[in-house]
Amino acid sequence: MKRIFSLLLAFLLVVPFAQAQNAQKDPQAQKILDAMSKKYQAMNAFKVSFTQTLESPSTKVKESINGDITVAGNKFRLAVAGQEIINNGATIWTFMKKENEVTISDFDPEEQEMTPNQIYTLYQKGYRYVYAGEEKVGGEAVHVVDLTPDDRDNQVFKVRLHISKKDNSIKSWKMFRKNGNRYTYSVKKFTANPPLENNYFAFDKSKYKGVKVVDLR
């Protein structure tokens, strides 16, 4: 589970680190981050379709995968790379499509490096951030904000966020790891307050014929 979240940022999705010397909590960057955070926290739920691109200079690999994530408070449902991860705030179901197997476990927030519902508030504790200017993403003007973890042992040493100047939404972000790998997440489609069934954040075994259940609770 930790690997999934670190590769996200599931949605996914996304938040900040950078080993810039003398980096501070830049007031201009904080204003932009606060506006972004306020936008997402005001929603009952949201759904994002994204593309994750891995670039590895050492192995000369560049590959992309697509995913979708829906978040509502401390609940989320993530589909990426042949996996479906569902969290209702107390229980996590991890379904592996190829194996037709679902693993059930208790959700412990303390064991997670990052969860989707933390994405838009993570910068508020343990990070420094600086405003890095303006760019264009898909023809749209965006603010560029770099974040740096206070923890120098963090394997992600920088995350660069692209935040829309128009509506404060996240358009893309890039994670820089110490091993040289770079992960870019691009938002393809965003839906605010999508209609959700009552049991949306639960695994319905009846919809997965012949599924093997591994209950670790």
Automatic annotation (TrEMBL):
CDD domains the record matches: LolA
Entry keyword set: Signal
One Pfam assignment: LolA
Signal peptide bounds: 1-20
Name the UniProt record assigns to this protein: Cell envelope biogenesis protein LolA
Organism of this sequence: Rufibacter radiotolerans
Lineage, highest ranks first: Bacteria, Pseudomonadati, Bacteroidota, Cytophagia, Cytophagales
